[in-house]
């Protein structure tokens, strides 16, 4: 069996678990089950879910925020200020939500089945000019942030400004935006860190959620041995991802130092104010909106917090 | 090049249908042109808003992406009608009479087959983004301001369907010329030499 | 059959269709469609019962491409650039430019020809298309040159060659297309075209002056314009300067501050200025309607090739052909520079028979990865590279080289379209006359290309600042 896997960009921390999964599966099946990972050759990133539904390829990665209407249920994971503190918690929360029947049902409409998440740390801001460490300074700030994050910043007077991630560097350089919200690896790979004067270390407004899915027919069509090899490898692939991203985060401080980027800490008072304005109201709006569309919104929402609690107790 | 080749007409039914369809095709091409104009207006609004009022146009990129299929594809049948899609005519320019009509018939037939398949494929692309029971009938939305994408996706199969109609007409036109051995058939773009194309190009400027 | 073999058969079939006169856009799309079906059915072991499934999957894959690939902010530059060109005509910018160039520089030997070259270079700053530029100047500049005794063939050659500058000097539709296909920064490529474009213009001018100094009875200089006359000629041509400044400033601020926006916005603001100018010069609704429909036709034609070729490219992605080709190229035991020169020569030959945009779109998906591999890969640093430049810089350099090659082909026989256009506009000239007149400019272009290959800094200096 050879599977085609559609991802985008270039190989980076964000795709390491997929490479690891391919490696493990090949190893466990003695080379019988291989994966051919293609960076953009098979589909456009925003159409990976379509590709899965057509049967164009067997496995793919996508992000919920690219097309909220395709995957309403998992947008709960992109709400601002969920309070997810680290990548382990992000994995636990994501996988709990992925296992919910409402998510499985929505994915089944795309002939897709969730495999694992691509956990990302909180999307903190880099910016040019004087550091913005008070809420009042977010007023009129042009910020590159999508989905729930965009909503959070506009709640405090920021102006979410749409540029694609590949244009983010230039948008920052040209003053189209003042600040860009990304995870660390993306600040590195899209070069926004080179343009920045400061980085918010503890704003932690939220993150985006990017699952890896398989085509249901292809998955069901695997021989029992191959399917077992695949299923067994998922946890190990995620562990590899976490270890790899962890080392990137360890390097992060030295990257900041090397590029001369100031680490900005925002006071607890300011953070509390931000959460108050941009947290609860946006959560409530999401709950009302999704419930109106017939999703078990409250259930999904509660699942996030109960999972967080459980995860913290077990540590 | 995108010059307009000459398309002859007479009082025949084929020619009258050709003229009727051309009107529709022209309107569609004009809509594409207006789209290009709106692109310019949109940028002016966005830049002035951002620089003078600190009020950037929300979803600027989303709107551009929505408009692009309209600009880039909607009027495609009009271009085909006038033989405006580029090709290499170094060989076909040498041919005359039935041999020429045979080659024209064959390549047009291939294009028709392609377009019918693409109407199917692009319709399915639209259909996946469309859900009658969902809010805004949307099952696919844009990245920043969540516009439903299905209208932009629908543009493509519609444009390709009109193009398919046009290709059927051209097939009939070439078929007639092939069977009857015509010299100057109606309702099909006539092959022009490079010099004629250049003259037409120059005429436009 | 292996994937590579299927890839080669389909690619060969596509070129046969193109030679048989099938419209390039559709030949590429059909090849891609057939290739996708073939690959999938091959995967299914040619089981007749599963042909339907292979067909359905392939058709749906191909069906994603037109909408998906066309919906791009970067590609929105193409209709904008085309619109500028049409509006510029109604704004009366061409005559104004030629008049200003004549009054300021026609005093040098071969003056009127030199003026024409610089006027076409100026017009290139609002026009994205070479052929249109040649057609416009054939009307304006050739009669004036003939009036003062220029050789008619030479006068025609100057215009045909000058027209080619439009595709290097931004705005340039073909550079945007290149940037999209190879997924590189549009702004950097547009900036990179600027100096080579001006550079080409100076080489043309040097050639003309040399000829005027050495040949007898060569077009005399035009003297006697007063300073007042010179300055009076400037204001009507000013919108060109405004457009150039705006496009440049939207990509990169030479004074070290922030750029003003994105290239997309710069192009649109430039179009808006020319639009206002055209309104002021008396363009009304009927003319605007014409300009819009013509813009639509040209844009749609270019986009059809783009999505058609991208269906073929999607098939290549599944067949893995580009990486096989670049593996082969890098395994050759010739020097990389020699291979690069051979690739450029192959473009020169192909360009004799094909339209520039079609040629680049059909070949780049396979050739570009190979060139990048020759240099040491897409992400190579300048220090580790073969040609002494980083991956992205190599992409820019190669882009300018192939576009210059493609432009060179616009003036070479047998299909050199610029020459046909010039002959088409002037009743007193045959195509042979124009081809003869343009011959000296082959030398100029050959020198330019050799210099761009030997001194990449000419191309890379400006984009490396941004
Ligand atoms: Na130009
Ligand atoms: Na002539």
Automatic annotation (TrEMBL), chain B:
Domain of life: Bacteria
Subcellular location, principal: membrane
Protein family membership: Belongs to the TRAP transporter small permease family.
Subcellular localization(s) per the UniProt record: Cell inner membrane
Keyword list, A-Z: Cell inner membrane, Cell membrane, Membrane, Transmembrane, Transmembrane helix, Transport
Protein role: Part of the tripartite ATP-independent periplasmic (TRAP) transport system.
Protein name stated in the entry: TRAP transporter small permease protein
Keyword tRNA-binding: no
Transmembrane residue ranges: 26-48, 60-79, 99-123, 154-174
Xref: InterPro entries: DctQ, TRAP_DctQ
Pfam families, A to Z: DctQ
Membrane topology, as annotated: Multi-pass membrane protein
Record flagged with keyword tRNA processing: no
Quaternary structure and interacting proteins, as annotated: The complex comprises the extracytoplasmic solute receptor protein and the two transmembrane proteins.
Sequence ranges assigned to domain Tripartite ATP-independent periplasmic transporters DctQ component in this UniProt record: 39-172
From TrEMBL, chain C:
InterPro entries: DctM, TRAP_DctM
Species this protein is from: Thalassococcus lentus
Membrane topology: Multi-pass membrane protein
Name the UniProt record assigns to this protein: TRAP transporter large permease
Protein's job: Part of the tripartite ATP-independent periplasmic (TRAP) transport system.
Pfam families in alphabetical order: DctM
Keywords: Cell inner membrane, Cell membrane, Membrane, Transmembrane, Transmembrane helix, Transport
Localisation: Cell inner membrane
Domain of life of the organism encoding this protein: Bacteria
Ranges where the TRAP C4-dicarboxylate transport system permease DctM subunit domain occurs: 12-458
Transmembrane annotation, as ranges: 6-39, 74-92, 112-142, 154-181, 193-215, 236-255, 267-283, 295-316, 328-350, 395-425, 437-462
